[in-house]
Design goal:
This protein has about 160 residues and is mainly α. It contains 6 helices and 2 strands. Strands 1-2 form a two-stranded parallel sheet. Helix 1 runs parallel beside helix 4. The protein starts with 6 loop residues before the first strand and ends with a helix.
Length: about 160
């Protein structure tokens, strides 16, 4: 997907952006695991005392759709930035962080299709396991971030 560059950041701005990105990614992972591992399975569960509520299922699916769209926006935000000179490698490692979320969502929907295809008269208990792996670029970015000489004293003076 082509996304035009919208702005170039200096080192101070890039450090601020990078810090926000790390926190945003952490929240993305927390929300996606909550939705996929806790919320969706709970709204799909029924027992003798309660039936599955279609409105709750729809709400969960809409939340997952919003999460997917926001994760695409998270990736787009990386593409609109032109990093300062010398930080191109670090910036390259910023991309594709949300692929793990996309993969987990697709894996969940494939498993839901399997769930739909089961003859429920023959099977009473179904187990759904989702694998959520952190994209290798997250680790690479962390190592590159630690390697970069940020010259913090100079950055503080420029504030």
């Amino acid at each position: 997907m082509f996304v035009p560059i919208q702005r170039r950041l200096d080192r101070r701005q890039y450090l601020e952006w990078e810090t926000c990105r790390i926190h945003s990614h952490k929240r993305l992972v927390e929300v996606s695991t909550t939705l996929l591992i806790e919320m969706l399975p709970s709204v799909l569960s029924s027992d003798e005392s309660s039936d599955v509520d279609p409105a709750m299922i729809l709400g969960a699916v809409k939340s997952i759709e919003r999460l997917y769209r926001e994760s695409l926006e998270f990736e787009r935000q990386c593409k609109v930035i032109l990093p300062p000179e010398g930080l191109e490698k670090l910036h390259g490692y910023q991309q594709r962080w949300s692929e793990s979320t996309h993969d987990a969502i697709w894996e969940m929907f494939k498993k839901l299709q399997v769930l739909c295809d089961i003859d429920h008269r023959e099977s009473s208990k179904v187990e759904l396991n989702i694998t959520y792996k952190v994209h290798p670029n997250v680790t690479r970015a962390s190592h590159e971030f630690d390697r970069v000489d940020w010259n913090v004293d100079q950055l503080v003076e420029s504030w």
